[in-house]
Hints:
This protein is mainly α. It is 65% helix and 0% strand. It is built from 8 helices and no strands. The chain has helices at residues 7-19, 28-40, 45-51, 55-88, 92-105, 109-131, 140-152, 161-170. The model has no long low-confidence stretch (mean pLDDT 90).
Amino acid sequence: MTEETDWEELRTLAQDVLESGDPLELTDETRALLSRTAQQVAISKQDAEDALRGLSTAMTLLREIRQRIRDGSHRLGDALDQAGTLQKKGDLDGAQQAMRDLLAVEVVPLYRKHAEVQLEELTGLIEVRTTGRINPDLPDRPQLAVLAQRLQQGHTLELTDDLHALLRRTAPRQPSARPRRNWPSRAPKAPKPSWG
């Protein structure tokens, strides 16, 4: 899930202007950058165009874009950490709620997409835990964890070909044993010195 953004270029502009004190020059290139990134953080094209009519409103737009990227990044990171902790404890419902809580407040489309994908994966894991059937679209290790939870809850698993394949893929690897070779010694053993 990769989406093209101009955030690195915007970050550089924001550092130069907002932190280093360089003047904001509203060139065609800068206007285009601010317009594109505004839309990437859910600011309407019309609002961005209105803001780009004056220097002070363009500065406000730059601050708002940077703030939405920062705040959204922190919210997403916190929600993913919380969901991951809950998932490891077996609380998939709680992990889902962490993603739903994020989606309730997040406006940046890229961050929303990340949360939606995570929520979809968690929903799939709940289905795997409920049914005991492998989902080929989900990662192996989380499925193995929810299947272990299923067993701990007293449910059985049917050893299907899919489950057998999952167990093989996730089994710890043994170092391959090298056959010992008995090479003949190339040089005769030297006699032990006698110190007598």
